[in-house]
Sequence to fold (434 residues):
Amino acid sequence: MKRCDYACGSEAHRLERRRFLGGLAGAGALLGPGVLGGLGSLATPAAAARLIRNERRVVVFNMSGGLSQLESWDPKPGRPTGGPFRAIPTSVPGIHISELLPRTAEQMHHLALVRSINTAENDHGKGAFMMLTGRAQVPGVEYPRLGAVTAKALADENDALPGHIQITPGGGGNRGNDSAYLGPKYSSIVLGNGNPPQNSSRPEGISAEADERRQAHRRRMNEEFATRRRTAMTDAYVASYEQALELMRRREVFDVSRESQADRDRYGEHDFGRHCLLARRLVEQGITFVQVTHSNYDTHNENFNFHLEQLGEFDGPFATFVGDLADRGLLEHTLIVVLSEFGRTPGINHLYGRDHWGSAWSICLGGAGIARGAVYGATNEDGTAVADGEVDHGDLFHTYLQAVGVDSTDSFDVDGRPMPIGDPNAAPIEALLA
Fold:
């Protein structure tokens, strides 16, 4: 059986905008105006906007709890395991997904499916770790999450804005503990409810002039201290403080209320709609990695009612997000991944639920260097086992990074020690890469 079928492919254009623009700005400062000749035209707002569009980024939709593949990407209507929902055609001839995702079906020509995942892991925590690090969880060993790896590989290290954002219901601006040996610079900042980070406004009782004097004094003290006792910890403190100040200066980047009422209406006036609109706003502002959490899919009982409700909320905002990125020229350079920690059992339990299932399940992805309209792998007719093209978390992790131009077989230099970016025992799914 052919493992990957797709209707079309598209070339991913790869341009590292931040590094290029930073080098251009540096050259301009050193050489003076006019010396750059024709390159000076690239410093216009329109050119800057084009460069932002060309920058590579990743957006992950984390379907927390374990999305059922049978109610989403790999329906089995009419089979004993299939449940009550139909499979509907999509914008790609021959590809059908669950009727719970009608608007996503209209965007399938921008997307692809992997229907042959076997992680052999049914634990929430371990499954989430595997899917977001590309490694199995080992006691005493931490690996950086995909967001930290992406920010390290793609974001400009001199950019004060964070390269790793998580958007979760109730998130309040705290830092995640998810960058492991890459260091706190690449840890996530957690946002929620479509709002900027908490405590990112200057206190009303402190004037801008007084605050600038305070910061200048702090910097002088830090510099004096660093001449005697500079450490990685003090550097991390200074970097975090400067990043916080930049967040305060540019907090409007994170303020979804600045989007038009028409756009807010299109995405929906609920948490997930606001979070998808915020993700689009962050992508447009050049943030390298955004993760949006939609919860909860842990449907041990009333699986069908819960998925009817949950995917009913997910479908419209997600499809709008995909369409907007395509219309705005951002999808060619933005990888979109819809994943969870595992799937749900083909068997339906006595509570009309589906339990944890890591043996044969699916994800959706698209954009960047992913072949459009592709389906990779297959399960058997009841969805109880992978029938073709089996892959696991490590293979997917490599594929995500390769799709945005990162050599996942390379290593990061961490204090002189090479740390493999992806699991050396896994490999990218070449058939999915355009």
Notes: The two ends are 20 Å apart (CA to CA).
